[in-house]
Amino acid sequence: MVVILREEPDSPDASALVAELESHLAERYPDESRHGYSVERLLEQRVAFFVARVDGAAAGCGGVQLIGTDFGEVKRMWVRPAYRGLGLGRQVLDRLANHVRAAGVRTLRLETGVDQDAAIALYESVGFRRIPPFPPYFDDPLSLCFEASL
Hints:
- The protein has helices at residues 12-26, 39-44, 88-102, 117-125, and strands at residues 2-6, 48-54, 57-67, 71-79, 107-113, 129-131, 143-149.
- By secondary structure, the chain is an alpha+beta fold.
- It has a seven-stranded mixed β-sheet with strand order 1-2-3-4-5-7-6, sandwiched between helices.
- The chain is globular.
- The two termini are 27 Å apart.
């Protein structure tokens, strides 16, 4: 059974998921190409953060930051390797999109790394299209930006 609920980013499970994601990215990208928020910044920026649980175990996460009424930005999407292939990434992304829609915002954006093939495939499969970098991002050969209309 899958449950996706809003949690504080500094809860033990949420913090562990963010740390795993950061470790995964640190092995693949230099510091200047990693733009993810720390747990502290997720809290400071009031990012709505969600944890996906499978039979009670924390399996994945994702957050969304509202940028006024312009757009929501996906933050810290991650599914633990043992839980991949279950559609959790899509479910988390749907939950984030619903949160943004409920706030009256109709655009969702994100930045990801060029080597995140599974994530890119997911984003494109649900209607995200590549866009030029949006602030605070910049032209970086290791970074891609996407947008979807909700």
